[in-house]
Amino acid sequence: MFKEKNIIIKNPLKSDIRFGLVYPNVYKTAMSSLGYQIIYNYINEREDSYCERIIYPSIRSLETNSPLSDFDIISFSLQYEQDYFNILEILKEANIPLRREDRTNEDPLIIAGGPCASSNPLPLSDFIDIFVVGEAEAVLYDFLDLYLELNLSNKKNNKKINNRGVNFRSKRDLSPFLDIQGLYISEFNNNTEIALSEDMDKIYHLTYPIVSETDDKDFIPAFSNSILLNVSRACTRGCRFCMSSYLYRPLRETNLDYLFSIAEEARENTGLNKISLIGAAVSDYSKINELTNGLKEKGFQVSMPSMRIESITKETLIALKSSGLKTLTIAPESIYSLRCRINKDIEDEDVFRVIGDAVELGFNIKLYFLIGLPYETQEDICQLASLMKQIDSMKYKFNSKSKTSTKKAKVSISFSVNPLIPKAHTPLQWETYNMKDIKLKIKYLKKNLKGLDIKFDSAKMGLIQYVLSCGDREIGNLIEKSLNKKISIKEWGENAPNYTLEDKLPWDCIDVSVSKEFLKLEYEKIKNSQQTPWCEDGDCYNCGACN
Predict the structure, then answer these.
(1) Using the 8-state DSSP alphabet, how is residue 432 labeled?
(2) What's the CA gap between 49 and 387, in Å, rounded?
(3) For the chain, what are the domain ranges?
(4) Residue 420: which of 394, 387, 381, 389 has the closest Cα?
């Protein structure tokens, strides 16, 4: 049995705009996306619009079982590059022309948003009409207002033409949308400036989330049924591999008291007591201990999917433990010397401190590591294996008197090892991806870390993701070709880019406010492990985001 509470039902026939909100991945992932749920509620607050959800692999809406072709606008959420294949599959199954040049004003308008759309829209630009670069609240209402205005004008013109016995099917004119900041229109390859909401207290906060009622694990959201509390947006730590560190700057925080009121209102609307704190680096929130303690006092169970090691205190862990959190997730990334190269100056002592406190409090621990970092050597991989073994040994309770450890683990410690994927608009956008090197390193770690609870991402999938992340418009041909034929890893490799600092990059038309000059300086700093300290604690580095 599968039920949902708090879904929005309207009469589609009375809506001027039917908006199909497509998540090109499975339900449990879709309904754990705060952005996806925000857009659903945000659009449905308009009386003239009805937003319905379509979640892969379905091509019909959850609300009215309508086919995709019934919608005026179809919007894809681009969270992961691997979902690009699902997007084309959905369009194909729905009998909607794949390529924008083959669609007319009688077909739905195809748009897309999310971090991948803001970072590098080029690989999908032959299939998507308009990309939203930035945050939905800063763009969508202006976009919908203009769509309605243009649609009304087109209907009047069509009526005149059809009265003369002419069948009206022509290409839609998208040029008026060029005047809206934050819209990249594929046809024009226009220079686009990111659109962001300046004040977190004025953005759309989710107080009426959808709650699923089911015993089917495939339909239980990744964070389970919980209130998704938008604590902050952006991260300015500046980890040189991380897209979140550069895309949405500057850092913006929601007022503490406002967060409490949002949580209370959401609980009234759902009956839920569990809260997931959402943000690029939630533990960096300036009043994190006041927030977690305050929510605990109000009877909430708090989870924190994203935590920075250097900002985790024992006080924070105690508050999270007492509120019901069971698993702590952190990302040491690599050994200390390589952490410094990627601007993550976290001493091993800090890593051990947090893990030690977490073990003492009874947390299960999940750790994320990267391989394939710039200047990484085989000796570094050997040291990484030693570090992981040392961390794993910390799950056993240590007796300080006898100086021995118990054989029974007090908690579970698991590891995830992933290839580093260079991303657009980061200092590593000029790096390449060496699949052969990654495979050898995975092989070594598997051999030397037997007995550890460890998962490895595929080196081959890493290559594909790299091509999709940093490729140009031509990569769209590969994505389309994959609908009918398996693309060999050799062909993916042949299409892997190899940029230099002097090259014009495919995504140079997208201005995310962080300057290319700043990213070049950061890239050069990797060579000698030079740090760029957190600007929230010190000086401004003139990255461009606050200009």
Answers:
(1) -
(2) 54
(3) 2-193, 198-306, 321-470+515-546
(4) 381
Residue count (the chain): 547
Amino acid at 371: I
Amino acid at 423: K
Cβ neighbors of 144 (< 8 A, separation 6 or more) are 17, 19, 43, 46, 48, 49
Mean pLDDT of 138-142: 97
**Gap between the Cα atoms of 246 and 316, Å rounded:** 27
**Helix 256-270, helix 288-297: angle, nearest 10:** 30
Residue 294 belongs to what H/E stretch?
A: helix 288-297
Average pLDDT, the chain: 93
**Cα Rg, the chain, nearest whole Å:** 24
Residue 31 predicted with pLDDT over 50: yes
* Residue 484 identity (one-letter amino acid): N
pTM listed for this prediction: 0.94
Residue carrying the six token digits 């390859």: 189
Task: Provide CB contacts within 8 A for 168, sequence distance 6+.
Answer: 105, 158, 161, 162
Backbone conformation region of residue 297, classed left if phi is above 0, alpha if psi is from -120 to 50, else beta:
alpha
Q: How are beta strands 49-55 and 17-23 bridged, if at all? A: parallel
Q: Mind listing the pLDDT tens digit for each residue in 170-220? A: 889 999 999 999 999 999 999 999 999 999 999 999 999 999 988 888 888
What DSSP string describes 180-197? Answer: STTEEETTTT--EE-B--
**Domains 198-306 and 321-470+515-546 equal at CATH topology level:** yes
The Cα-based distances of 333 to 63, 81, 241, 415 in angstroms read 41, 21, 10, 11
Residues 510-545: pLDDT tens digits? Answer: 999 999 999 999 999 999 999 999 888 878 888 988
CATH code of the domain made up of 321-470+515-546: 3.30.750.200
> What pLDDT, on a 0 to 100 scale, did the predictor assign at position 208?
94
Residue 157: predicted pLDDT: 63
Beta-bridge partner residues of 214: 2
Map residue 269 onto helix, strand or coil: helix
| The pairing of beta strand 413-419 with beta strand 453-456 | parallel
Do 16 and 184 touch, CB atoms closer than 8 A? Answer: no
CA distance to 63, 214, 365, per residue, from 53 (Å): 7, 18, 34
For residue 209, whether the previous peptide bond is cis, meaning omega lies within 30 degrees of 0, is no
Q: Which residues, 6 or more positions from 390, have their beta carbon under 8 angstroms from its beta carbon?
A: none
Q: Is the Cβ–Cβ distance between 434 and 372 less than 8 Å?
A: yes
- Hey, what are 122's tokens? 């080029």
Distance CA 116, CA 98 (A): 19
- Integer Cα distance of 459 and 420 in angstroms: 10
Q: What would the pLDDT profile of 479-517 be if each residue is shown by its tens digit?
A: 999 999 999 999 999 999 999 999 999 999 999 999 999
Task: Give the CATH number of domain 198-306; options: 2.60.120.10, 2.60.40.10, 3.40.710.10, 3.30.750.210.
Answer: 3.30.750.210
